[in-house]
Design brief:
Layout lengths: L5 H4 L1 H16 L8 E2 L2 E3 L3 H24 L11 H29 L3 H5 L7 H12 L15 H26 L7 H31 L4 H9 L1 E3 H7 L1 H9 L31
Antiparallel strand pairs: 1-2, 2-3
Amino acid sequence: MGDTLLFDRFFWVVFMMPFVGLLAAGLSKRKDPTVRGRRILRHDGPARAAHWSHAIGTVLLLVSGIVLGTRFTPSFTVGKDAVALWFNVHFLFVLLFLFGTFYWLGNTVVSRWRFREHLPTKHALSYTLNHYGSLLGFKSCTYPKEAKYFESERMAFILALVATAAVLISGLLKVLAHVLSLPEGFLNVVTWTHDCSAALMLLFLAAHVFFGAVLPFSWPNLRSMFTGYVALEHAEREHPAWVESIKEVRPRPSEPNRALHGNPQQGDVTDAEKGIEHA
């Protein structure tokens, strides 16, 4: 079986994919959130490409990993040929996952304000309690002035970030074990880390799909992951702080687009910074 494994023959491709993703991100041209008539550009082309390549890669990687078997689930493969086949399928999905993850990383982290808009603020707990308390009808709760991403989404982002990093690092170490002799005890820890973090990713994915695609109130934002735009009326109702920040900030004619150069103002960043065009 070893002679037929792509992990053995093409392990170097796995370590090359992060650089391919970062290169593609560097060649991408970003657009800042912009009001256009009664719509707002919420996700530009590179943002949508990063989201879907990472999402599809993650789903397929989890599916193939479960088929192969984990510390928590049995293997659904029978025979060496079937195991080899699914390991090779897993290899292809690893490439897609790595490309999507590092394409997102290059598109987001390089621009400091784009990354910060995903991180929870000091209002995370109070906003989340008021947000969902008001939806459940509690009179003591007032719907907060949410930014582009709800504070609950920002807190969940930390879990996704940690789980993804753990899966990625442990997975690369498992690939390295195909060409280097690593201690058995160390590999056992790596495998447990890989499977535990994959389980966390699966839980996050289930919650993300439920709150981001199944529940009706999320459908306008879901459409924006295909079209790029969300209705201004919806954004003003659900994300008022985001809309205000876009409308209030206008570039000076002689001022360069500072958002594109990753040079935001100090303080809490919602979505718009200097240089956002208001059309």
